[in-house]
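Colleagues,

For the teaching module next term, I've prepared a clean inverse folding example: a structure given as tokens, and then the sequence designed for it. I'd like students to try predicting residues themselves before seeing the answer, so please don't circulate the second half yet.
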């Protein structure tokens, strides 16, 4: 019962500090244009992105994205996230195999050079094994599974950052 007021107060403080750092309207809205929520609901209603960001991690990832790297709030990151949502089953299967056309397409959309695809796929496989082996994995929604996959992909891309465009 006390949880909601605490979360709301924290969000208000974060939103206030973010708005104080930049003039109003000079950057993306962290709760609707950034983070996992914006990636998962890029074509959906703004409330879905906001709700997802708050449920996922109380909006900290979204706020961090907006303040530290606002360029990640749109573009290839969002398109890649949408691709993952739309093709999650195929990506999961191909990731288990270590190769496939959906993996190649995802990394191409993300802007990664072909020479690094195998390294990134290996990183994704390693992260996803841990995710899939978790006790609660089967209870996750498709969106939550896609979000975990996105995080694994993003970590793999970060390991090959010089070969992937922003």
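(Answer key — instructors only)
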């Amino acid at each position: 019962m006390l949880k909601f007021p605490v979360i709301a107060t924290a969000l208000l403080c974060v939103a206030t500090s973010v708005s104080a750092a930049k003039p109003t309207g000079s950057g993306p809205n962290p709760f609707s244009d950034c983070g996992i929520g914006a990636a998962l609901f890029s074509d959906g209603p703004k409330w879905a992105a906001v709700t997802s960001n708050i449920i996922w991690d109380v909006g900290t990832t979204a706020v961090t994205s907006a303040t530290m790297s606002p360029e990640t709030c749109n573009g290839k990151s969002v398109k890649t996230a949408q691709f993952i949502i739309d093709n999650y089953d195929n990506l999961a299967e191909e990731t288990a195999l270590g190769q496939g056309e959906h993996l190649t397409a995802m990394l191409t959309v993300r802007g990664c050079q072909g020479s690094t695809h195998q390294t990134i796929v290996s990183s994704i496989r390693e992260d996803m094994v841990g995710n899939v082996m978790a006790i609660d994995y089967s209870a996750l929604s498709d969106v939550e599974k896609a979000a975990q996959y996105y995080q694994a992909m993003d970590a793999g891309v970060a390991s090959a950052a010089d070969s992937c465009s922003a």
